[in-house]
C-alpha cells in the first residue's frame, strides 16, 4: 500500500467512524442544530491537540542540553510544569492558548463523572457546572477569553438541551483517535493533526449540508465547483476575498491548490501560503462562526470582519482592493435592497434591481477588484440573458468596459440545495499583455465554455466533476489566456469579440456561441446495423416471454391466475 493510499484509507475510515458517532444525535436534534455541537467539539479537539503537541515539543527541549530552552539537569518537576504553562511559548508559534479547563483530557475525564461539579481556577475562583453541556460551554468561555482572535466565534451548546450521555458519547468517540500520532492498522500515518481535523471538519460540513438540504447550501458550495474556480483563477499569491464566504470553502481550497502545485511550481507550500491574505464576509452569524473555526483549524490567518454583517449595507472591508475575488452568493436574492443603497458608489454600471441581487453582487466585487485583479462569480443562468429591470443594460455596460473574460455554463444537478441551472462569470480588469503571468493580449475578446455535458453522476441525484474534467475546462481557459494551443471546439468552447456579442443582444449564454458538437461518423453499414439490432431485439423478446411464463407459474402456485 502506497503512502497516499494509506492516508486515504485512514481518512475514509475516520470519516465513517466519526460521522456514525455524530449521526446518533439525529434522534435528538435536526441537522441544522446538531452540526454546531459536533463541529464545536471538533474545534475543541483541534486546538487542544495542537496545544498538546507544542507542549510535548517544549518538554523535550527543556530536557535537551543542546536546546536554547534547556532548564538544566537538576530542574524540578515544579519548574518544568511552570515553564510549560508559560503562554508565550505557544502564542509565539501562532498556537492558541488552551486553559487547563478547556484541554481535551480534562473534558474527557470530567464528562465521565457525575454532575453537578465544581472547578477552581488559578485564582481560587469556583465555577459550578451542572451538566456536560455546561462543561463544554465553560471551555468555550475560557478559550475565547484567552484568545482575542476567537472572540465571539464559538457557538455554545447548552441551549440545545442535549442529554449529557449524548455529548459524553461524542467526546469518547473523538477521543479514540490520536490526531497527533495517527496510525492505521498498525502503520504510522504521515498526516499532521490540523490536516486530519481539517479534513474531518470539511467532510462533516458536506454531510450536514446534504442532511439539511436547501438550507445547507447557504454555507456549503460543492467541492467540484470550488475546485474548478480555484484552478481557473490560480491564486498563488495576493489578497483573496469572498464577500459571501459561507463556511470558508474557497479559502480552504485556495490553500489546497497551493499545496497541490508546489512540486510543478518549485516552491515551499508552507512559505507560499504566507503570500496569501484572506478577507471574507458573511451575514449569517452561525455560518460566520463556522467559517472562523474552519479556517482556524487549518492554521489559516484571516480577516473576516469583527462580526457577521450584510455585505451591501455593512461592508466589513470598504477599502479593500483584492487580487482575486470568488463567491457563490444566494441565487436571485430578492430581499436585499435598502434605501441607503440608492446612489451607492459601487453601482458603476447601473443600479441593480431591488428584486434581484445578482448584479449587485457582481458590481460589489468589481468595485473591490484591484487594477490587475480577477474574479469568479457563481450565478443563476438567468444572469446571462435577462433583459428585465435594468439587468440587460448593466450587463451591456460591463461588457463594453471589457471586463468579462470567460463564461462557463455548468451542468445541472451539481448542487445539493437547488436545481436552478448555474454559470460562472470570470471577470478581469486586465486583458492586456502580461508577460509576468504568461498572458497574451485578449482585449475585446471573451471566451465561452459550454460544460453542460461535462462530469458524471455520482449517485441518482447529484452530479460531480472528476479531476480530469476540471483540468479540461481550466486548461482550455489557460491556453486561451496564454495564446498557445487554443482552438475553438464546436459544442464546447468559442472565442467571441464584442461585435459578435452585441449582435446577440449582449446575451452571454455559451450555447449561443459554441454551436453544436460535430456528429461522429458511424462506420457500421446501415444494413449490418439493422440486422444486428433486429437479432438483439429478437433475443430480448424471447427472454421477456420466458420471464412472463415464470411469473404466471409462480402466481398459480399461490392460487392466482393471470
How are the SSEs ordered, and which strands pair?
Elements: H1 3-23, H2 31-62, H3 77-84, H4 88-91, H5 104-111, E1 117-120, E2 126-129, H6 132-146, H7 164-175, E3 183-184, E4 187-188, H8 193-212, H9 223-233, E5 238-242, H10 249-260, H11 262-265, H12 269-273, E6 276-280, H13 285-297, E7 322-327, H14 358-367, E8 369-380, H15 391-400, E9 404-409, E10 422-428, E11 445-450, E12 456-457, E13 463-464, H16 467-482, E14 493-497, H17 498-503, H18 511-514, H19 526-557
Parallel strand pairs: 5-6, 5-7, 7-8, 9-11
Antiparallel strand pairs: 1-2, 3-4, 8-10, 9-10, 11-14, 12-13
Helix pairs in contact: 1-7, 1-8, 2-7, 2-8, 2-13, 5-7, 9-10, 9-16
Amino acid at each position: 500500500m502506497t503512502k497516499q493510499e494509506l492516508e486515504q484509507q485512514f481518512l475514509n475510515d475516520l470519516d465513517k467512524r466519526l460521522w456514525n458517532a455524530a449521526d446518533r444525535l439525529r434522534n435528538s436534534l435536526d441537522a441544522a442544530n446538531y452540526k454546531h455541537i459536533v463541529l464545536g467539539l471538533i474545534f475543541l479537539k483541534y486546538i487542544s491537540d495542537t496545544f498538546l503537541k507544542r507542549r510535548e515539543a517544549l518538554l523535550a527541549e527543556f530536557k535537551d542540553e543542546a536546546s536554547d530552552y534547556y532548564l538544566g539537569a537538576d530542574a524540578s518537576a515544579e519548574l518544568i510544569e511552570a515553564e510549560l504553562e508559560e503562554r508565550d511559548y505557544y502564542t509565539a508559534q501562532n498556537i492558541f492558548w488552551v486553559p487547563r479547563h478547556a484541554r481535551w483530557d480534562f473534558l474527557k475525564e470530567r464528562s465521565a463523572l457525575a454532575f453537578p461539579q465544581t472547578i477552581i481556577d488559578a485564582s481560587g475562583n469556583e465555577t459550578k457546572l451542572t451538566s456536560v453541556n455546561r462543561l463544554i460551554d465553560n471551555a468555550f468561555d475560557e478559550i475565547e477569553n484567552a484568545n482575542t482572535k476567537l472572540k465571539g466565534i464559538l457557538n455554545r451548546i447548552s441551549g440545545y438541551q442535549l442529554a449529557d450521555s449524548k455529548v459524553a458519547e461524542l467526546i469518547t468517540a473523538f477521543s479514540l483517535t490520536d490526531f497527533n500520532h495517527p496510525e492505521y492498522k498498525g502503520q504510522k500515518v504521515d498526516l499532521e493533526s490540523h490536516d486530519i481535523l481539517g479534513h474531518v471538519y470539511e467532510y462533516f460540513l458536506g454531510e450536514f449540508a446534504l442532511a439539511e438540504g436547501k438550507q445547507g447550501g447557504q454555507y456549503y458550495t460543492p467541492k467540484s465547483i470550488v475546485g474548478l474556480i480555484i484552478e481557473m483563477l490560480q491564486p498563488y499569491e495576493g489578497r483573496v476575498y469572498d464577500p459571501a464566504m459561507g463556511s470558508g470553502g474557497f479559502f480552504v481550497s485556495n490553500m489546497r491548490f497551493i499545496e497541490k502545485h508546489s512540486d510543478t511550481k518549485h516552491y515551499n507550500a508552507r512559505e507560499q501560503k504566507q503570500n496569501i491574505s484572506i478577507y471574507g464576509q458573511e451575514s449569517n452569524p452561525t455560518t460566520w462562526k463556522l467559517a472562523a473555526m474552519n479556517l482556524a483549524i487549518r492554521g489559516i490567518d484571516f480577516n473576516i470582519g469583527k462580526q457577521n454583517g450584510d455585505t451591501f449595507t455593512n461592508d466589513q472591508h470598504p477599502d479593500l482592493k483584492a487580487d482575486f475575488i470568488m463567491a457563490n452568493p444566494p441565487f436571485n436574492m430578492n430581499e436585499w435592497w435598502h434605501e441607503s443603497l440608492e446612489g451607492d458608489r459601487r453601482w458603476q454600471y447601473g443600479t441593480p434591481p431591488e428584486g434581484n441581487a445578482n448584479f449587485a453582487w457582481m458590481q460589489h466585487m468589481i468595485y473591490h477588484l484591484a487594477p490587475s485583479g480577477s474574479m469568479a462569480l457563481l450565478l443563476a443562468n438567468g444572469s446571462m440573458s435577462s433583459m428585465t429591470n435594468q439587468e440587460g443594460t448593466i450587463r451591456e455596460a460591463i461588457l463594453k468596459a471589457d471586463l468579462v473574460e470567460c463564461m462557463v455554463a455548468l451542468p445541472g444537478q451539481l448542487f445539493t440545495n437547488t436545481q436552478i441551472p448555474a454559470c460562472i462569470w470570470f471577470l478581469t480588469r486586465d486583458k492586456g499583455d502580461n508577460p509576468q503571468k504568461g498572458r497574451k493580449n485578449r482585449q475585446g475578446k471573451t471566451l465561452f465554455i459550454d460544460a453542460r455535458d461535462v462530469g458524471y453522476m455520482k449517485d441518482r441525484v447529484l452530479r460531480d466533476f472528476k479531476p480530469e474534467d476540471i483540468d479540461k475546462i481550466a486548461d482550455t481557459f489557460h491556453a486561451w489566456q496564454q495564446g498557445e494551443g487554443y482552438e475553438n471546439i464546436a459544442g464546447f468552447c468559442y472565442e467571441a469579440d464584442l461585435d459578435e456579442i452585441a449582435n446577440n443582444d449582449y446575451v452571454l449564454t455559451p450555447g449561443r456561441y459554441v454551436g453544436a458538437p460535430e456528429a461522429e461518423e458511424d462506420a457500421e453499414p446501415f444494413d449490418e446495423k439493422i440486422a444486428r439490432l433486429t437479432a438483439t431485439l429478437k433475443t430480448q423478446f424471447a427472454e421477456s416471454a420466458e420471464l412472463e411464463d415464470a411469473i404466471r407459474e409462480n402466481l398459480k402456485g399461490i392460487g392466482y391466475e393471470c
